[in-house]
Automatic annotation (TrEMBL):
Residue stretches making up the GAF domain: 25-171
E.C. number: 2.7.3.9
Compartmental location: Cytoplasm
Annotated family: Belongs to the PEP-utilizing enzyme family.
Keyword Magnesium tagged: yes
Protein known as: phosphoenolpyruvate--protein phosphotransferase
Cross-referenced SUPFAM superfamilies: Enzyme I of the PEP:sugar phosphotransferase system HPr-binding (sub)domain (SSF47831), GAF domain-like (SSF55781), Phosphoenolpyruvate/pyruvate domain (SSF51621), Phosphohistidine domain (SSF52009)
Pfam name, any one: PEP-utilizers
Primary residence: cytoplasm
Keyword Transmembrane helix: no
Length: 747
């Protein structure tokens, strides 16, 4: 075979493009292409294998293999040499295919006479579409140039597949972005929604993979890379960068200035690709490498390069984030990840959110929860699969997404949504009634909040007040520290909206997973047990004092309720409470009205506080159990770690005994006690807590109706006896016993 030259490749690409310009059905086009490639590469065989489903490849066209094997020969991902190319996303080049490890003989193709094999992936930025293969009788290794040329052809095929040029009559061909896809992720926020995809960052569409004039394309890519370099340098020059942001941008700069990257793209262009297609080809190669790298740090860096490629594509195509597309009705936001401020900006107009990354405790999840928008996280490949406007169902309860669902699935889903709506209707009829159980005990149900957007739920849910107002959310959604006057106005609006109902403002709870974008992040080995919450407040009291002043001013003489997060020992509470008293004196001295009454409470989130001196329980005006944190420290199980976060049951008798102890200590000193972690909003847990004597539960607004309905239909004394019995019988958890009993209770 003659050495390939650049002009050979360009000629091939041009012939490819011309062939595709001829009107025809998909199968005809594929046949013509295989003929063309074999002819141009000087090989006896050229075959195109495409994915029939995500696990199966099918021979869709061939020049040289037996025609009857087309659409008959199939292999699993990873099976044989073709399967290996598809799985790894890397070429396989061998002079003696039958002796290659993993070779699978497929007699129907008649391929046994071909010794050399070169297979390259057909892929488009992370999306595997198939495999392109050439084979020849002569036993020889293909040259680097040949591999490269075939990769370039595969790249063009990928773009053309994306543009739908083969869709139509090709039997077995996976019509891209057309078929239903079900993705199993994780629950970020419960709830069900039906809507249409709205991509946070729209895909860049490359319509011109082949270019005639390499010189112009090289000029274009150089200019675009130049622009990219300037933009990264500008970002780096910003003053407000923290160490991590700087590090990421330094890596960006390194890649942006990398000669190798630009050179590879220029080589691609020399072979006939357009500048855009060259960027995508290198991006695909990076993605394929990304999947192979076990080292987390290196993977991150390759992610950086991926981001940078996207920026470069946007520069080249002029397609910004805002493509001018119109947001569909009932939009469901789909993104790799999203910041809390951006999500808040979309606000309640979103029906649902689906993220490829994200975590239960991420700020986006916190905002989605506050807005009561169903959220699915870890939805693998959703960004690649989804197109703007695609129908989508979000099942936040199961953590499942149905993209372009079949009508039967959509119908079943609509039934589920209707049932949930009917239940909400039922609950709203209980809105004005107390959560009074059959034994006469009344449990006070409050809601958790953190944004102004939450407050309309106060009326709607029937909550008696706000048991936990997470003030850090207002800090997290901004990009600079809020001013005192701004906060005072906001807190005043919260109190106005509460119309005299109690709002327990929790002072800033930052650190751990909640890192303010404008505060220097701490490099801590274990931030959940590090410098966080009240520890920061006491060591750097400036922000705490400013926040307390804002709260006092917002109250304008009305009652004020404040609580401190993460109090671990008595002394911390004394010091924090003293700050409140000092600020009250200061405000009074300045002639500002002071609140009519001030309650100062503590959140019990570390086991140690349950064993604090009696003086603590006497001094604090109330205690609120932060079950999310308390449980993670009690069971030594990270609340953010998917592997362990659900491992231990809240109704485990060890934890219940511990709660009993806290309830007893508060009872002994007459200290009001509430529970405000997520478990308060879960039916069986809430029932157990109420039965054990917790008289106030604070939860997300959507849980108030179901919990109230449940508590009203049971006798707490009976439930308590069931728990006592299960404990005495030595069970590890009382859940089965309580659920059995509950199943027998009349509706
Ligand atoms: C808790 O820890 O239970 C709690 C309510 O606080 P947060 O979830 O905000 O840490
Ligand atoms: Mg907490």
């Amino acid at each position: 075979m003659p050495e390939r030259t650049e002009s050979d490749s360009r000629k091939l690409l041009r012939r490819l493009r011309d062939t595709l310009a001829i009107p025809g059905q998909g199968q005809d086009r594929l046949n013509r292409i295989t003929h063309l490639i074999a002819d141009s590469m000087g090989t006896e065989v050229c075959s195109i294998y495409l994915f029939r489903d995500p696990e199966t490849l099918e021979l869709c066209a061939t020049e040289g293999l037996r025609p009857e094997s087309v659409h008959q020969t199939r292999m699993k991902l990873g099976e044989g040499l073709v399967g290996r190319v598809a799985r790894t996303g890397l070429p396989v080049n061998t002079a003696n295919a039958p002796s290659e490890k993993g070779f699978r003989y497929m007699p129907e193709t008649g391929e046994e006479i071909y010794s050399s094999f070169l297979g390259v992936p057909i892929q488009r930025v992370g999306e595997k579409l198939g495999v392109l293969v050439v084979q020849s009788r002569t036993a020889r290794q293909f040259t680097e140039d040949e591999i490269y040329a075939l990769e370039v052809v595969a790249m063009v095929l990928a773009e053309m597949t994306e543009l739908g040029l083969f869709a139509g009559d090709v039997d077995g061909m996976r019509a891209l972005h057309k078929q239903p896809v079900m993705i199993r992720g994780g629950t970020g926020q419960e709830g069900a929604a039906e809507g249409r995809v709205w991509l946070h960052e729209a895909r860049v569409v490359v319509t011109n993979p082949v270019a005639d004039d390499p010189l112009t394309e090289i000029e274009r890519i150089r200019a675009a890379v130049g622009q990219l370099r300037v933009s990264v340098d500008d970002l780096l020059a910003a003053e407000s960068l923290d160490k991590d942001q700087k590090q990421v941008l330094e890596a960006y700069r390194m890649f942006a200035h990398s000669r190798g990257w630009l050179r590879r793209m220029e080589d691609d262009i020399a072979l006939g690709l357009s500048a855009e297609a060259a960027v995508e080809k290198e991006q695909s190669a990076t993605r394929a490498r990304l999947e192979q790298v076990p080292d987390a740090y290196l993977r991150e860096r390759l992610h950086d390069l991926d981001d940078l490629s996207n920026r470069l594509l946007r520069i080249l195509t002029g397609q910004g984030h805002d493509t001018g597309a119109e947001m569909p009705e009932n939009p469901v936001l789909v993104a790799r990840n999203i910041g809390p401020a951006e999500l808040l900006e979309y606000g309640r107009k979103l029906k649902g959110v689906v993220l490829e990354e994200g975590s239960v405790g991420s700020h986006a999840a916190i905002v989605a929860r506050a807005l009561a928008i169903p959220l699915v996280i870890h939805a693998d490949r959703i960004v690649t699969e989804a197109l703007n406007g695609d129908p989508i169902l979000v099942d936040g309860d199961q953590g499942i997404v149905h993209l372009r669902p079949e009508e039967t699935v959509a119908r079943a889903f609509r039934d589920k949504i209707a049932m949930q709506a009917a239940a909400q209707q039922r609950y709203s009829s209980l809105r004005g009634l107390p959560a009074q159980s059959k034994c006469g005990t009344v449990t006070s149900l409050m809601m958790n909040a953190g944004l102004m957007a939450d407050l309309p739920s106060l009326d709607g849910s029937g909550a008696e007040g706000v048991g936990l107002f997470r003030t850090e959310l207002q800090f997290l959604v901004r990009n600079k520290m809020p001013q005192r006057a701004e906060l005072a106005a906001l807190y005043a609006r919260v109190m106005d909206a509460a119309k005299g109902k109690r709002v327990a403002f929790r002072t800033l709870d930052i650190g751990s997973d909640k890192v303010l974008p404008y505060m220097k992040p701490q490099d801590e080995p274990n931030p959940a047990m590090g410098w966080r919450a009240i520890r920061v407040g006491l060591d750097k009291p400036g922000v705490l004092r400013m926040q307390l002043q804002a709260l006092i001013r917002a109250a304008k003489g009305r009652p004020l309720s404040v609580m401190f997060p993460f109090i671990t020992e008595y002394g911390e509470f004394v010091t924090a409470r003293d700050v409140v008293m000092a600020e009250l004196d200061r405000e009074a001295a300045m002639g500002h009205p002071v609140p009519e009454t001030v309650e100062v409470g503590a959140m019990l989130e570390t086991p140690s506080l349950a064993y604090a001196p009696k003086a603590f329980f006497d001094l604090t005006d109330f205690v609120s159990i932060g079950g999310n944190d308390l449980k993670q420290f009690f069971f030594a199980a990270d609340r953010e770690n998917e592997r362990v976060r659900r491992r231990y049951d809240t109704l485990n008798v060890s934890f219940l005994r511990f709660l009993d102890h806290i309830i007893a200590r508060c009872a002994a000193s007459g200290t009001p006690l509430s529970f405000c972690g997520e478990d308060a909003g879960r039916p069986v847990e809430a029932l157990a807590f109420a039965a054990r004597g917790l008289r106030t539960l604070s939860m997300r607004p959507a849980s108030i109706g179901p919990i109230k309905a449940l508590l009203r239909r049971v006798d707490l004394a009976e439930a308590n006896a069931v728990i006592d019995r299960a404990m005495a019988e030595g069970h590890e958890t009382i859940r089965p016993a309580l659920m059995d009993w509950l199943a027998d209770q009349p509706e």
